[in-house]
């Protein structure tokens, strides 16, 4: 019989970082939020042409933030913290947006905070938050993140 389980512990990977004592962790995330039906076309339009400053921030290596709704595979020789876009999927019947990403780095909380410091990212979030309804009680917006705007999902299966 199926039993719920805890998400797997963060995976530790070797790093080319000059500080050999630091180890990089890899964490997978899945999140959902609801897209307001009147904004489906606009949401798709803006994501077909994501602002270059936002894409640059998402793809930037440490010490810049390492966040996106997406996935990143760490390869030897890359700079420390990274995460790059994979996908956001939309289920039209319910309006649910499903995002997944993989964080590979040393300081997830710090990297997310640095992401919030980017004015263009905050502007992007303000725009896209207006298209969405959070499923997290008490959530105000992506920038405040207290509680988070996107609802985190529990991982129940992963095949490496």
Outline the structure in words:
The protein has helices at 40-47, 52-59, 108-116, 119-129; strands spanning 11-13, 24-35, 87-91, 96-105, 132-133, 151-152. The two termini are 23 Å apart. Strands 1, 2, 3, 4, 5 and 6 form a six-stranded antiparallel beta sheet that branches. The chain has four helices and six strands; from the N terminus they run ββααββααββ. Mean pLDDT is 77; it is low at 1-6, 12-21 and 62-82. β3 and β4 form a beta hairpin. 23% of the residues are buried. With 160 residues, it is of the alpha+beta class.
Q: Which characteristics define this entry?
A:
single chain, 160 residues, alpha+beta, 6-stranded antiparallel sheet, globular, disordered N terminus
Mean pLDDT: 77
Uncertain spans, ≥5 residues at pLDDT below 50? 1-6, 12-21, 62-82
Total helical segments: 4
Largest sheet: 6 strands, antiparallel
Residue share in helix: 10-25%
What is the alpha-carbon Rg in Å? 16 Å
Beta content comes to 15-25%
Alpha-beta content class: alpha+beta
> What is the ordering of alpha helices and beta strands?
EEHHEEHHEE
Question: What form results from the Cα inertia axes?
Answer: globular
Find the count of extended strands (DSSP E, 2+ residues): 6
Q: For the terminal residues, how far apart are their CA atoms?
A: 23 Å
């Amino acid at each position: 019989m199926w039993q719920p389980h805890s998400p797997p512990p963060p995976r530790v990977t070797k790093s080319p970082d000059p500080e050999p004592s630091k180890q990089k962790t890899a964490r997978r995330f899945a999140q959902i939020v609801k897209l307001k039906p009147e904004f489906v076309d606009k949401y798709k339009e803006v994501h077909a042409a994501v602002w270059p400053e936002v894409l640059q921030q998402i793809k930037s290596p440490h010490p810049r933030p390492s966040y996106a709704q997406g996935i990143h595979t760490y390869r030897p020789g890359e700079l420390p913290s990274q995460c790059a876009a994979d996908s956001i999927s939309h289920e039209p019947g319910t309006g649910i947006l499903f995002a997944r990403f993989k964080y590979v780095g040393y300081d997830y909380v710090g990297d997310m905070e640095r992401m919030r410091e980017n004015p263009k990212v905050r502007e992007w979030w303000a725009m896209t938050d207006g298209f969405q309804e959070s499923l997290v009680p008490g959530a105000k917006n992506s920038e405040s993140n207290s509680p988070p705007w996107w609802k985190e999902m529990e991982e129940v299966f992963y095949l490496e």
